[in-house]
């Protein structure tokens, strides 16, 4: 099973960006933890990060063509306004899990709305790095259930 992890705008700055909010763990460290959990769960994890909205859409298109079994996405601020990414995600027929390290509902009002909410399998937020690990477990579970049915 192949799980694609998509990281959006500004997330390459984890560990440096607002450590009181996001902690000091870097994206490379998060990726390593996801890969380790993936091995434990018997799945392959591939991670991708970009600050370019078009590149994110193109990577989602490739995920469809390559046959990813599930997708995790932390699109950062794009989650709240990128209809282009939303439309790309809507093309996928595999489970998509939206995640955020911070609790977006406890933040600024513009963060309370996700344009992805109606098309994703589920959302996980507010657990810091554990949001990624919980999302991976949820995606593997959902993909396994989809493969059985």
The CATH superfamily turns out to be Dehydroquinase, class II
The helix content, as a percent range, equals: 40-55%
Which parts are unreliable, with pLDDT below 50 for 5 consecutive residues or more?
none
Strand pairing plus helix content: what structural class?
Answer: alpha/beta
Number of strands: 5
Distance between the termini: 16 Å
Specify the overall morphology: globular
- Level-1 CATH class name: Alpha Beta
Task: Give me a quick take on this structure.
With 149 residues, this protein is an alpha/beta fold. Helices cover 41% and strands 17% of the residues. Strand 3 (70-74), helix 4 (83-90) and strand 4 (96-100) form a beta-alpha-beta unit.
Which keywords apply here?
17% strand, alpha/beta, Rossmann fold
How would you describe what is shown here?
The protein has helices at 19-22, 27-41, 53-66, 83-90, 129-148, and strands at residues 2-7, 44-49, 70-74, 96-100, 122-125. The chain has a five-stranded parallel beta sheet with strand order 2-1-3-4-5, with helices on both faces. It has a single domain (2-148), classed as Dehydroquinase, class II (Rossmann fold), CATH 3.40.50. It has five helices and five strands, in the order E-H-H-E-H-E-H-E-E-H. Helix 4 links the parallel strand 3 (70-74) and strand 4. It is α/β, with parallel strands linked by helices and 149 residues long. Helix 2 (27-41) runs parallel beside helix 5 (129-148) and helix 3 (53-66) packs parallel to helix 4 (83-90).
């Amino acid at each position: 099973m192949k799980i694609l992890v998509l990281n959006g705008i500004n997330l390459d700055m984890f560990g440096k960006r607002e450590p009181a909010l996001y902690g000091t763990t870097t994206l490379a460290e998060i990726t390593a933890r996801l890969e380790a959990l993936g091995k434990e769960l018997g799945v392959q994890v591939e991670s991708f990060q970009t600050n370019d909205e078009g590149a994110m859409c193109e990577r989602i298109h490739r995920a469809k063509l390559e046959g990813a079994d599930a997708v995790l996405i932390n699109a950062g601020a794009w989650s709240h306004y990128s209809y282009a990414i939303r439309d790309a995600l809507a093309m996928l027929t595999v489970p998509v899990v939206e995640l955020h390290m911070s609790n977006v509902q406890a933040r600024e009002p513009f963060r309370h709305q996700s344009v992805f909410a109606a098309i994703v399998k589920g959302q996980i937020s507010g657990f810091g790095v554990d949001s990624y690990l919980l999302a991976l477990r949820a995606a593997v579970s959902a993909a396994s259930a989809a493969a059985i049915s």
